[in-house]
Design goal:
Layout lengths: L3 E6 L4 H11 L6 E7 L5 H9 L3 E3 L8 H14 L4 E4 L8 H6 L4 E5 L14 H9 L4 E2 L2 E4 L9 E4 L2 E2 L6 H25 L6
Parallel strand pairs: 1-2, 1-4, 2-3, 4-5
Antiparallel strand pairs: 5-7, 6-9, 7-8
Helix pairs in contact: 1-6, 5-6
Bound molecules: 5-O-phosphono-beta-D-ribofuranosylamine.
5-O-phosphono-beta-D-ribofuranosylamine binds next to helix 1, strand 5 and helix 6.
Length: about 200
Amino acid sequence: MELKLGFLASHGGSNMQAIIDAYKKGETTAIPAVVISNNSKSFALQRAKDEGIPNFHISSASYPESDDLDNAIIEKMEEFGVNLIILAGYMKKIGIGILRKYKGKILNIHPALLPKFGGEGMYGMNVHRAVIEAKEKESGPTVHLVDEEYDNGRILNQMKIDVNENDTPESLAEKVLAVEHLIYIDTIKKIETGEIVLD
Ligand code: GRF
């Protein structure tokens, strides 16, 4: 299946960059087609510019009505032929319009082993702090489908790493992020080959 990826990102976009790099190296044929960010100052938009990938700042500042925001995002995804949406550190909840239009075609990566340590408020360092406080022996990223609830959709792929006694939330975040880059690409490749079948 030929994949055309539409990224939604709010901040650094290192996961997005890893996927773009994999495409450039020929590790995947999934085409990074468009990048949309709600944050005009996000490094993700800068990365897209540097890579010559069409990029747009679309946010609730210009589209206060959620339907209008969804439609503006859908319009861009359609314009660039996107058939798989990749959330790459997108800090906004996905609107119902986008969920309906791209049902089963929206992926997210979460920096813990779902269904543990997910849900509202579980993002960024909060996740790693909670993992350490719970004295977990393992952590690692989860790639999952996106539905109406935070971190709730079908789990597609996970990768485990050890949590050491001397890990801090920061050291754990760094270790998990490095593995995120691998597992996001691995998941996309498995969708391409049909090893992972989307709904
Ligand atoms: C990652 O930790 C990911 O798990 C979470 O947001 C972060 C995005 O990092 N959803 P980056 O923008 O890809 O560097």
